[in-house]
Write a structure and sequence with these properties.
448 residues; alpha/beta; 14 helices; globular; binds zinc ion
Length: 448
Amino acid sequence: MEIEIATIGGYEEVGRQMTAVRAGDDVVVFDMGLNLSKVLIHDNVETERMHSLDLIDMGAIPDDRVMSDIEGDVQAIVPTHGHLDHIGAISKLAHRYDAPVVATPFTIELVRQQIEGENKFNVGNDLVKMSAGETMSIGDQVEMEFVNVTHSIIDAINPVVHTPEGAVVYGLDKRMDHTPVIGDPIDMKRFREIGREGNGVLAYIEDCTNAGRKGRTPSESVARRHLKDVMTSVEDYDGGIVATTFSSHIARVTSLVEFAKDIGRQPVLLGRSMEKYSGTAERLGFVDFPGDVGMYGHRKSVDRTFKRIMNEGKEKYLPIVTGHQGEPRAMLTRMGRGETPYELDEGDKVIFSARVIPEPTNEGQRYQSEKLLGMQGARIYDDIHVSGHLREEGHYEMLDALEPEHVIPAHQDMKGFAPYVDLAASKGYQLGRDLHVTRNGNMIQLVD
Ligand SMILES: [Zn+2]
């Protein structure tokens, strides 16, 4: 059976991920992501109304025109998890394929909400839920399986396409977490089995984000302990404490809610995306927040909540807000600019349970936000975070578990691939033979 891989997006950048695997006449598409920084750099761009081709020209979504060179039918569009760089282009591209979107329940719900907000295209693809550990048939001879992985968003999986020539494992995005705060540990046992059963692993496509960092990525439980230490240390402070984190990071938001209660404060979730992700996770039963935890997304209800906090006393509350990267329109940035009814005083605490995404725009915006908060007297606690991506030893363990015949680094630019290429070379892989460094829009023929 012919096996071919099209590396469509996310091979020259982090963002706009998209890869297609053809096995005989059947094609599976993994991820259709959005590179948000390419959108935000322009003022007042509303992607909801934009045409795909304009977004492709901006470099914001994958240029999927290469798909017309693939001789086969797309049977499924499979986003691995709900981050925007993996699902953000589904509302712009999926309608061009006569195939369902297949993903885990939390991811499917985020895809559904995204399609609902789309104003330009009518996206009618079926939305099919499939959980980790389950399989589905792709054509006559191919099966797709979801293996449970751990990442900075719940319900993440790595899809595996089982072909007569061996398995193709799509390895974006994960860390090796054996004690995640929510959900099951990464299923390393299954990865080891897949490496040894049948014809083994034909190809492994891997997320190289942290390949250049030594050692292993700590578990979410480490970030949780760090956060508990910080919050306990300010337990006796009788002024304002404000926290921010990735709103899609449900495990972290849950820890913040819990520790707020522990130090005698009422947690309240503020900001549009805070309300969206936490509300969705709660509706689907992934978390069970205490009944009195408020979630407010619209600016008016947020400002009303801030007024209530100022009236009743800042020492009674822990606002958990958007704005960990200093995004200009996010809640914490507005607080820094003095645009909300919440007034910061000398000595008030601001907890960043997030790391600055190392990118000039983010770094500049975050710097500005911290300075503005500091000018009002706020004390900053930053970097209370662990990454969602494997470091060097995690990558080593994955190669050891899967023993893939071919390796394809992804989810980075050329510079980002380099440390992974070194690691794979040390395991005996050779560039151009079985280690395929590629670019957006290329095809790799593995079996002809
Ligand atoms: Zn991700």
